[in-house]
Amino acid sequence: MAASRSPRLRAVLRAGCGAAVLLALVSSCSGPSTESGEPAVLDTGIEPVPLDVAGPTYAAAVPGGLLVRAGDEERVLPEADQARWLPGGTAMVDRSRRSMSLELLDVATGDLAPEEPVRIRGFDLPGRSVTQVNLLDSLREPAVLTAYSPGLERLWSLDLPDTDNPDAAEVSELRRGYYNVAPTIDGVTFVQWHDSAEDYEGGDYGVARIEDGAVVEDVLLNERIVALYLAADGAGLLALRQAEGEPCGGCVVDQEVVEIDPATGEVARDYGMPEEYVEEWRVAAMDKVGDRVAVRFTETEWREDPKDPDDVAPVTVQRGTWVYDGAWSVVEGSEDELTWWQGEDRVVARPAPREGDARDGMQLFWLHDGVEERLPGDLESSVGPLYRTGSVAGQLLPP
Q1: Which of 65, 115, 165, 359 is most buried, with most CB under 10 Å away?
Q2: CATH second-level architecture of 57-392?
Q3: Is residue 312 over pLDDT 90?
């Protein structure tokens, strides 16, 4: 598929950065508590889903196509241009060029399933999927949400309800639009919506809470929720919330991290932001591991283009992975490398700016048992009209 290009995954090393940096995390067995005696980080009571990946498990662009590797097994798919990971090291791949589709790849055998790929309208793969794979077709009227098992067996399909705003009787274009990912946690699915029209201001927005293929209720009504993030093990649902004012896409404003109680759909914990945070920082990734919340931040800086001093270009600067366990702290070295933990081992990506315009400026490494191994491939690569994106299985923090 000739997908549209997206901002490049370029990163910047800080002066004096070493090649390998050990991560230092301080955690408490019991975890700190709030003034009311409740745990500082929400305990949902949901059993985490074991990731069960044999590292290194990742997908990356290589000259011959998309490299998909799980442990010692690997395949190169010439037609594929992107992939996502499920628990157990199963890859969901898209091999369609004119549209999008999903297939499951058995990396050991090279077999693809199901026999008929799951077709996707639009240009977005599903978000993080743990116990359920959800495809949102926001181009239809009404929008349609279809749920699949991790084996891509269809579970249900739902025509999402249109607006119940009484102004719709007078404003013919007033519609309820559904957007972003649709995560499922503990059998409950959440999808964001916004009532809007071209010449209509002040439309409501919220999140539909869905059980067994039906909308049970609308939650988080006008509560400034910007995005939802499912934990890699499926045991927590985090959200990014605008600190004040109405959400506006792309605005440079203060944001904060909260956690949603899946049982009610309401905000159960407000984790705020690190003291060092400034509104120019953007959330690149979010995860929850046990009683720790992890957030990876970036910032876009405009810098002189080395090939054209009269021009400037956006550069993504890493601002580190920060951990909340009652207080915020930064993971040592995380401003210099990206990390995905796979059990006690990890895949890291470090800046390598001289790798060329068609590549993402990062190098991948596998760190295990005290050994560091260079991994082939790029998480982003563009050659002509072809744009490939890889992905890495794992969590932002060690277990």
Answers
A1: 359
A2: 7 Propeller (2.130)
A3: no
